[in-house]
Amino acid sequence: MEWTFENIIYIIAGVTFCIFVLKLLCAIIGFDFEADVDFDFGDIISFKGIVHFLMGFSGYLSIMFHNGTYSGTRDIVYASIIGLIVMILLYFTYMLIYKLDSPHETKMGEQLVGRKATINSIEDKEKHLYSIDVVVNMNSITVRAQSDKSYRVGDEVIISQFKDNLYLI
């Protein structure tokens, strides 16, 4: 094999795309080499960022060589721009995936004060004890609440206070 610029670009393209596919397959089956959830803009200049840049760069040049339309410096500039675009797009894609994958924290106690709730059931009519549903992070949680006035099942209320492990409405 002759070590020409064209062959080196083909090798870089092959290796980087193989790394990307291997990492993608590992992520799909639940094994990730880089499980760092904290992502900042400095992570673009990392092994993953460089692989993504080389994917765009060598992918573009490989297509130009394959089509016989490689024209030198102009295509290297275009390949660099495409490499940067691929690197940035995949960075934001990873950020979105990690954001969607991150667990929602459960809010309880004082964190529910001020939220709307719906009366789910009446536990004790004389003491005005209720079971209420509160929507938190698109999930509904059921908690015990007490009031100084009477409500019916289905009424909407606002949690005004949390005291002695009981919500006041």
Amino- and carboxy-terminal Cα gap: 79 Å
Radius of gyration: 28 Å
Number of strands: 6
Count of the separate structural domains: 2
Main sheet properties: 6 strands, mixed
Strand residue percentage = 15-25%
Low-confidence stretches: none
Helix content: 40-55%
In words, what does this structure look like?
The chain is rod-shaped, with a radius of gyration of 28 Å. The chain is α+β, with helices and mostly antiparallel strands. A hairpin with a 4-residue loop joins strand 1 and strand 2 (129-136). The relative contact order is 0.10. The protein has three helices and six strands; from the N terminus they run αααββββββ. The protein has helices spanning 5-28, 47-67, 73-101; strands spanning 116-124, 129-136, 139-146, 156-158, 161-163, 166-168. The protein folds into two domains: 5-101; 109-168, Nucleic acid-binding proteins (OB fold (Dihydrolipoamide Acetyltransferase, E2P)). Helix 1 (5-28) packs across helix 2 (47-67) and helix 2 packs across helix 3. The model has no long low-confidence stretch (mean pLDDT 83). The chain has a six-stranded mixed sheet with strand order 4-1-2-3-6-5, with no helix packed on it.
Keywords:
44% helix, 2 domains, alpha+beta, OB fold (Dihydrolipoamide Acetyltransferase, E2P), 3 helices, six-stranded mixed sheet, 169 residues, 6 strands
Short description:
Helices cover 44% and strands 20% of the residues. It is an alpha+beta fold and 169 residues long.
